[in-house]
Design a protein that fits this description.
- The structure is a homodimer.
- Chain A is built from 19 helices and 28 strands.
- In chain A, the strands form eight sheets. A six-stranded mixed β-sheet of chain A has the order 4-3-2-1-5-6. The first copy, chain A, has a six-stranded mixed β-sheet with strand order 12-11-10-8-13-14, sandwiched between helices.
- The first copy, chain A, is globular and about 75 Å long.
- Chain A starts with 6 loop residues before the first helix and ends in an 8-residue tail after the last helix.
- In chain A, about 50% of the residues are buried.
- The model of chain A has no long low-confidence stretch (mean pLDDT about 90).
- At the A-B interface, strand 21 and helix 17 of A face strand 21 and helix 17 of B.
Chain lengths: ~600, ~600
């Protein structure tokens, strides 16, 4: 991986920062956030502005360019990758380390008095705007919205915004019709006394209308907004997608139906002016509900007194709790599926996945890494770094796919020769952490961040750790990362876990320059039976949906307790039963023999 | 415990809420917060306004009285106690339960349109004012400051504000002189570019000047404020305490010394006008540093643009990390000290404690409870509830004291007969949680709230839990509860743990109407030796400072792992060595025989 040379680009950007064609007054700093206008985690190529200006293309990072400096904030998953991808015009700001300044503090320390800091108001979430604007103002600077995106002005070969055909999901996949979802949403709106709800997150639009798309790689979503009133539905979407008779049928666009379920289709680009019109026409007490992560531009369209902002929308929360059809789909999606370089192995994994029923696309770029590449947490093999798999190095494969019945995400770490005692020791601590979360029993209403330390305890005991969260919410044929729940030491605003939610359980250990280990299952939150029942609260635990053997060769059995040993054996027994039966049905005898071999029970020598 | 009859008092309060002598316009609701003007947890009798109006005298709770309603918000520790102490004029709002409205939501639901909500601006912290004012404003109401405290106007026999003599601590106790503390504070101020620092918390004033007092029961503090400039020191304190030659000598009031260490003594009541004068005389860029928990009245004295607010002050953070003299003192304070009703047992505990060297007073009201009283988490025995200890019931004793060399806080749960299998089972789960925290190894910089679930895991496995945090910071001859660190699922704003901090480790289990169990040690954060050292971060663990046997009769040994069993045996061995030696030196042979008997090693039958 050689860094992107950005000297010329930065020079151009610094010019437009002073160009009256784009800015009312020159800006002394320009912020390039990670996201798109929907605050998506994964974004379309046309929105990869931060990667364009810096070369760093990880999923999280914010660039700030001033007259003199260019700095990039990212988190522990990306320290190595960002350092490799950026040239020395850039300073890497390692978030989470004690001495790293916040963006605000850094700006205050480098800017001349009374500076203007510019940002695209469509890209920055309202809550971030507020925090940053306040911090800058108290130091005598100003955060200003720059309507034209300054990166776009210098990005001469910027790709077009995608506009791919839609996929309709029927009731057998979704369990609930879009009309019933709208009705449920309106009753939440009535509860909070709001008249309008603005849907800004792409996966929330997709979920609400039981539609999927492929505008963003790995995420089955499409560019759209929606504005739901108590009696109106407006869908903002581009292209001739609404000409497709099947889509028109699905959305009942040509039926005569109750006016409150009649969808008005409008151009994607008209959201701001329509929302401003809504904002201008509000009578007192008519509130408009937005996520506090909605863009500053859309939030400002509604006068402050009329805004009702929450960190999680009712759609986000409803979507996280999977219904019976969705849970059943997720279970099905996890049953099979499916020497060499990292890339060939990754391609092979995709090939196997694509042969499965209901396959749509991958759910993220496959991480296929061997030896030292494994320590780059979000590594994606490219020709310059491609290493040959060997019998001397640990191999890590993190792969997932979108199926019409669900979304998968699994990581396994393997050795094709003889692992060292140290590699086995580290693997076993990671496994102990994985089991501690997977087998945890906890009260109903517990927030996921309270389980994070369970995953680390065995590593901590030996002075080890990993610099990423333990788990993320998983969508149902939707984004592989979704809120509002998760398992992380960082997430304090997570919503309590409840039965039906789906998260990943993926502790790891990474040794820079040597190897990476991660063991990841997708797990479903289910009720737990306990001996007692304090305050009648009920208890929860997890059921693994992922059924892929964990390589026993990597386990130092004597570091496991008997309980942990039983967990592995029970898990492997279930893999044999469920996956074995399916392999037998498909007549895949070689795979079946491999499965039996890989799921031999562990025996602990006392 | 019979409830306080409050019908007449509420009638009087509702009258003054409309009396133009006290309020510019009538207020439709009046908030009575828990604290005093310093946001102290424990308060002087003259500040117990919420207890006066409602009868509920727990350490946490907020009362709100409207024309029609009277409601009390408190947390899980106090549900039972508040229900017992309040008459049916009052509605108990159980914080932490899902369906309990916030104070703001409740006010909005019960108030007529355009209401005024009054509160004493000296009592409400600025951050609470801001949150509540915003929520009320967005619903069309107003939060208004009522200068005269309305409870005081109807509290005819309100006690006087205490003004007791001061205790001076020399270097052998504090390790650092007050002059050096001021110098360190000024360098923190320079770092943040602030010119003034306002000390509002009583324990911060006491710590800064190496003084102690006894104005508030159990907390060795005195009523005072301080305003530290880069070249000036102002101490706001009442009474003739500053006439004491020893105090004058300690503070060098009569010495000719550098002007920047010259202390100006001013009346306690003049803080607001002095601060307003400071606020009026600020030049641009001269910031004033206040805690965001400082009162609204004092915060408002500084124009908004000049305020620098932080959740934890530099004094709070410096105070939490104990130096060598303080740590040594805490160790000494925990070595000895020291049938029957609950009250006699509590008095006896105080008597034993008071015989120890450097004893000053208790650090909180002794909790001495037997049988069902044990389930009232912050129970304090009074004649109406006083139960006789028996051989059939579990006895819980939570007691602590202030010594000149440190502050102690210990809970032990005992049975004087034969505990039932269920009682032993619950006790053993609590013990497992206590050990899991005490023996935990975790990276430097870990926040305490990430350890909270370790204390609950064994209880959760069986469907049990407890409705309070696991630990609080402990002062050094200061408040027994202090920030900025702690171990709780609730505290997200806690500062990272570092070596030298002192916290309690006190999981419990409470069965309403039957019994209460809690096992509490005070523990010191110390560096841990680990096999590896990830990213050179270093690891931490805890050393118990409390050395009191844990009743082995209550332990079901077969529920312990061998590691847990070893922990108990090692702990008891240390009790024998350290406390045994001291008992021998004091010639207390009976106590020594008891100690030996109670610390017999556990043997696990496999």
């Amino acid at each position: 991986m050689s860094p992107k040379i950005t000297t010329e680009l930065l020079k151009q950007l610094r010019q437009v920062m002073k160009n009256p064609k784009y800015v009312q007054e020159p800006v002394q700093a320009y912020i390039v956030p990670s996201g798109d206008a929907h605050q998506s985690e994964y974004i379309a190529p046309c929105d990869c502005r931060r990667a364009f200006i810096s070369g760093f293309d990880g999923s999280a990072g914010t660039a700030i360019v001033t007259e003199q400096h260019a700095a990039m904030w990212t988190d522990g998953r990306y320290f190595l990758q960002a350092a490799h991808q950026m040239d020395n015009n850039w300073t890497l700001m390692k978030m989470g380390l004690k001495d790293t300044p916040t963006q605000e503090d850094w700006l205050v320390s480098v800017l001349p008095e009374g500076s203007k800091v510019g940002v695209d108001p469509f890209i920055i979430p309202a809550d971030q705007w507020k925090r940053m604007s306040k911090a800058l103002r108290s130091a005598g600077h100003d955060l200003v919205p720059v309507k034209e995106n300054l990166i776009d002005t210098i990005w001469t070969d910027c790709p077009q915004r995608p506009c791919k055909p839609l996929i309709m999901l029927d009731l057998s996949y979704t369990g609930v019709s879009w009309r019933d979802k709208i009705t449920a949403l309106r009753s939440k709106m009535a509860e909070r006394k709001v008249m309008w709800f603005v849907v800004t997150a792409l996966d929330e639009v997709a979920w609400l209308f039981n539609l999927r798309g492929s505008d963003v790689e790995y995420n089955p979503v499409f560019f759209a907004y929606a504005v739901i009133g108590m009696n109106t539905i407006r869908l903002f979407i581009d292209g001739d997608r609404m000409m497709d008779p099947a889509v028109r049928e699905h959305l009942q666009l040509d039926s005569t139906l109750e006016p409150e379920f009649k969808i008005q289709v409008m151009p994607y680009g008209s959201i701001l002016s329509e929302l401003q019109a809504v904002g201008a026409g509000l009578s007192p007490k008519e509130k408009v509900w937005l996520s506090d992560k909605a863009s500053y531009a859309l939030t400002e369209a509604i006068p402050k007194a009329y805004r009702y902002l929450t960190p999680y929308t009712p759609i986000c929360i409803a979507k996280a709790v999977k219904n019976a059809s969705e849970t059943e789909g997720m279970r099905r999606a996890h049953v099979p599926k499916g020497t060499v370089t990292e890339i060939i192995a990754a391609d092979k994994a995709e090939e196997f996945r694509s042969q499965q029923k209901d396959f749509v696309e991958l759910s993220f770029a496959t991480i296929s890494s061997t030896g030292p590449n494994g320590a780059i947490i979000h590594y994606k093999p490219v020709p310059e770094t491609n290493r040959t798999l060997s019998v001397n190095e640990i191999y890590l494969l993190d792969s997932g796919a979108q199926y019409k019945d669900g979304t998968t995400d699994v990581t396994r770490t393997m050795h094709f020769g003889t692992p060292s005692a140290y590699e086995k020791e580290c693997f076993t601590y990671v496994l102990k952490g994985h089991i501690a979360v997977s087998a945890a029993i906890f009260p109903n209403g517990t927030k996921g961040h309270l389980l994070d330390s369970f995953a680390r305890s065995a590593l901590w005991d030996c002075g080890l750790d990993y610099l990423h969260g333990t788990g993320h919410g998983v969508g149902s044929f939707l984004n592989v990362h979704e809120g509002p729940c998760g398992i992380s030491y960082k997430t304090f605003a997570d919503e309590p876990l409840e039965a039906g939610m789906i998260v990943s359980d993926e502790p790891g250990y990474y040794e820079d320059g040597s190897f990476g280990i991660r063991i990841e299952n997708v797990v479903l939150v289910i009720p737990a039976e306990t001996k007692y029942n304090f305050k009648n609260r009920g208890s929860l635990t997890f059921e693994p949906l992922t059924l892929v053997p964990i390589q026993t060769k990597m386990i130092d059995v004597n570091l496991l307790t008997q309980k942990e040993c039983n967990w592995v054996n029970d898990y492997h027994q279930k893999c044999r039963e469920v996956v074995g039966a399916e392999l037998e049905r498909q007549g895949r005898h070689e795979a079946l023999r491999w499965l039996i071999r890989e799921t031999e029970p562990l025996v602990r020598v006392q």
